[in-house]
Here is the input.
Amino acid sequence: MSIPLEDLFNDVIAKSMRGLGLSEADLAAKAGVSVEDVAAAKAGTVDDKLLRKIAPHLQLDGLALVTMAHGDWRPTPVTLKGLAQFNTTYHDMTVNAYLVWDAETKNAVAFDTGADAGPMIDFIEKHGLNLSLIFLTHTHPDHIMDLAKLSADGAVTAFVHAREACAGAKTFELGETESWESGGLKIEPRSTWGHSKGGITYVVSGLEKPVAIVGDALFASSMGGGMVSFNDALATNRKEIFTLADHTVLCPGHGPLTTVGEEKAHNPFYPDYK
Ligand SMILES: [Fe+2]
Here is the structure.
């Protein structure tokens, strides 16, 4: 199953306008284009010249935005032993949850629950795995709504950052918890707040490649949007995600798997790595 990209190019434009506090008239004046042209781009009209003109005023990479508008890029499919993605339906969208496990010890760790933890629970049973811990990237309902079922009503410990305390999970503070070790896996929390106030990226080592479960901090060729702070969402991603090795597998809360290297090259929100 191939999951479509979460955002279209005009979603990226809208997120950036919202984040920077720019109206259509503001953007038109800055870029020297008409308000009608900006409205058309926002509505999905593909005009390469116009996109290149507005991109710098949105702090976006022009070429990456145009490439996205033409549907010319998708991340190379990632397969990694010990990593599974579960994509479940939530209203008119889908949401991802992840399972990481050690083949030798059969120890498994879950990241978020998705809208329905059923497929993950079936997978755990089918492969004879033992779920030892659950980590929450953030507490928007689509990511955590099946926590009671996945944790078997609290029999499996779940962790969430203290700034997003929620029922059924133990809170932790960064600094006080450097990392967790669990049956051949090491899980390191990093602050990627901005989309949500306590958003966490979990970097997992123990598989053939490093893995980072990023929640909605970053999507393939987009990001979740700075619902709390756009500037901090961009800054924490640069500091905590883009400093990871290029071959690190990124596991977003929506859309397909990607890598740090692919996002440096193709994500329009990060022109500084092009
Ligand atoms: Fe979210």
Observations:
- The chain has a mean pLDDT of 97.
- The chain has ten helices and twelve strands.
- Residues 9-69 form a domain with the 434 Repressor (Amino-terminal Domain) fold (CATH 1.10.260.40).
- The chain has two domains: 9-69, 83-273.
